[in-house]
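Weekly structure sync, notes
Attendees: PL, DS, HV (note-taker this week)

Item 1: YwbE family protein
DS walked through the input record. Source organism listed as Alkalicoccobacillus porphyridii. Sequence as pasted into the shared doc:
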Amino acid sequence: MDGKKRVNIKPGLKVEIVLKQDQRTGKRTEGTVKDILTNSASHPHGIKVRLTDGQVGRVQAISE
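Item 1 (cont.): predicted structure, written out as tokens:
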């Protein structure tokens, strides 16, 4: 599934995100989606989400 499309992301889903401070390195952080912060249907860099632990970043991959 694609982290660039909003329809693929739901609260409670396990995802890998890139935090703002990790955008240069591409380091990913794994967590569970709490809120979807991007309003548009898609975003070229990934949909912005807030994880249950409060971290905010853009979805790079959806974990199965």
